[in-house]
Please model this.
Amino acid sequence: MRDTPRTWPRVLTAAGLLVVLWAAALLPASAQTAEEQRLADIQARLEQVRADIASREGVVEQGQAALAEAEAQLRVVLEAVGVAEQAVARQQQAFDAARVRLAAAQEEVARRQQVAAERAIELYKQGNDVAFQEMLLAQDTGEALRRSAYVGIVSQSDRRTIEGLEAARRRVDAETRLVRQEEEALNGVLAQQRAILAETEALRNDRSLVLAADAADLENLQNQELLLESDARELSRLALRNGTGAAGRPAPSRAGWVFPADGPITSEFGFRWGRLHAGIDVGAPTGTPIVAAADGCVSFAGRQGGYGNLMLVEHGGGIVTAYAHQSQFVASQGDCVLAGDEIGRVGSTGNSTGPHLHFEVRVNGEAEDPLPWVG
Model:
């Protein structure tokens, strides 16, 4: 044993002992009050975080709607740009074809002009002797006249051909200019559509970034909520452990109790076949979660006769809840849980005709109808 300071008396006076006992008695209450204060603070923060989550969820939903609208606009603009690009491509093809035709027409005009020029030069060199020679070669006067006229006809035919070709060249030239103008107009439309596309893409990207930031804020708030909920559960469990004991704690209020499993009641509390059915049966598939009906500590988790896998949770004030026929335990003996915490899974162990939860409420060892507690 550690030595006391020399200034202390070796034997405590009766009054001093009373003071020490009184202080020791106050410590648990003070500790419990501090835990309750911390729990109240956490619950207040949790409420604020949940309010922020609800608000941020609304912002995220609006951001998602705005992004979806921007993406829909982007699809429309992309389609319009595609149509404009196709039109420009077709017009470019038409322009190229017109240029080919114009080049061919210009080449043919030039060729005809060259031929006519060569003929004119040759006729000029030969002078009137050509027509005279043509007439001399004739068999008779009629043929001589025809040969003389033929020379003039050839000259006139060349002129008409060249004039026709020149007219065709002018038409092709006008067509080429018109096609070019239409192509330039389409290029202008395409440039406008691409500018709109760039603006729409920028809008979509901005909204995507805003949504990502809002979603990150929401995720951060949700993580805070999980941490605060975990802290609240731990403080509640500490409060349960630091209470006056499972049997000595005051009886809990029925407010806040929850139904222990998701399913219909297939058998109620009461006598049947000459014996008491001490609880209610809740029909549910194997593996359905079983939750604690109220805050408490697990006092037993194991196999017990016809109950099969049974878990008992003490709630104070002599109140115990029982959860039978489980296929799997989630909580363990000694764990303190809150109402709604998962403690096991529905099964069909023990005396059972099928998967269900047999749930009991016992007050000072006597079974009571659970429905007034969890109904």
